[in-house]
Known about the structure:
By secondary structure, the protein is mostly helical. The chain contains eleven helices and no strands. The radius of gyration is 20 Å and the shape is globular.
Amino acid sequence: MDDIVAPRPAHLLLREETREAHEDTEASGGMRRLMDGELDVAGYEALLRAQLGLFDEWEAERAGWLADVVPQAGWSYVSRASLLRGDLAVANRARSYTSRPVEGHAPPVGASPARDAPAPAPAPAPVGASPARDAPVPAGASPAGDSIHDSATCWGELYVIEGSALGGRLIVRRLRELYPDRDHRFYAIGEEAPSAWRRFQHILDTQLHDDASHRAAVDGARRMFARFRQTLMEPAAHV
């Protein structure tokens, strides 16, 4: 009698099937230059703005799914867009302080004080909140996970996002060396990642339990890695 081979858990399958995409993303020009200390402050901020664009778009696309399916599965998604806005607000305040005009002197022609004024830093979405609940949903999107296949695709995308928090633990240490006056809220989320990541993997295994959902999740993860690679290319492209 042939031995029955148990199917691989979803989190292991995702790791194995997206290994190459993961490595390619980590080698992206913007991330490589950041870790090598080759980005000045403007380049770092450009990289943050590019990632804000990615997460604004993704969180809007998946708003309903993030608000309904994810908490029902036992996971609390923290808005990365909110964290990035906080980091950029700190950057705006620092820039406004250092470029404040001398009293009694008019700003130079072409200056825009309103543009450089500090923006209020939004509070990061707390654990357990559903920050994307009220975000607009573009036409044609299926953020609520209208079918098992759609939801599996979303879980694959979220696998990439939550997994990137692990790498963020190394990145944030480097960022604190390079830019010590910044908060780095976005990358610091990974400092609580190890135990949370194990719990997320367990949720993946319970949500993705057959070949069809596994294939959909892998496709979603690969597409998400591709979006990250596009975002993390040379920062000059985003200035």
